[in-house]
Amidohydrolase (Pseudoalteromonas rubra), 274 residues
Amino acid sequence: MKSGHIYVVQMCSGIHPEENLKQLAALLSQQTLKQPALVCLPESWLAFCQTPQQTLAQAQSNDDWIRQIQQLCRDFNIWLAAGTIALTDGQGRYYAASLLFNNEGVEVARYNKIHLFDADVADSAGQYRESTLTRPGDDIVTVDSPFGRLGLSVCYDLRFPGLYQAMREQGAEILLVPSAFTTVTGAAHWKPLLQARAIETQCYVVAAAQVGEHENGRQTYGHSLVVSPWGVCLGEAPAQVGVIHARLDLTDLHAIRQKMPVAAHNRFKSDFYE
Ligand SMILES: O=C(O)CNC(=O)[C@H](CS)NC(=O)CCC(=O)C(=O)O
């Protein structure tokens, strides 16, 4: 039965990729990484920019950063769920892309954030309009790994349970939710949403978060979380930069699914109306 070690890196990313990569390497160096290791990073960890135009410029020039990230996977012998990185669509916009690399630095999956955060929030930023230059993705992504079958999602996606049900139907066992939640919505919704997704799908949920006051003027909630398929929090980060570790064991997951087979009982599957 598959199992492994998950390391969730909570970052306070700034505008400059070089500094963010240094922050990541320093945090990983402080860990004794048990194998096999899956390292999960938050949304926009490589560059948390000030404007969509800055993010677009970043998206058009990050080939070299990606090569450095691939090298980091080999140096630390880790699988890396690389949060999100802005990647150009070649037509003047960018995707919020979540790339998964194996321990040889090979890209094994890519998910483009489907739901974009266009919302008004009672915080110092006030307005979020992610769709300004971001192109939304269309495809649901699940992929096998030494840890189990991973389902990829990003931040605001968390509010749309249909996506997670679809990943469950594709066999997902571990759902990844790299995020940069606002402090206001995070305090109100973050933990219950993550626990609900874990309980409904009977999956592990792993959510790496941005935290603190950022160079771009934004504030984020932190509280990175690992939730078991029973809804129990196996690890929760405080509101500061750092790494949390959890051991995932799919034996428990399959026991939970066997005792309460909600996926088989579900009458609202995607083929319900066919
Ligand atoms: O803009 C960037 O560089 C990084 N992207 C983000 O910070 C995104 C879009 S603005 N944030 C969210 O999705 C927060 C969702 C949230 O807070 C909620 O659902 O309550």
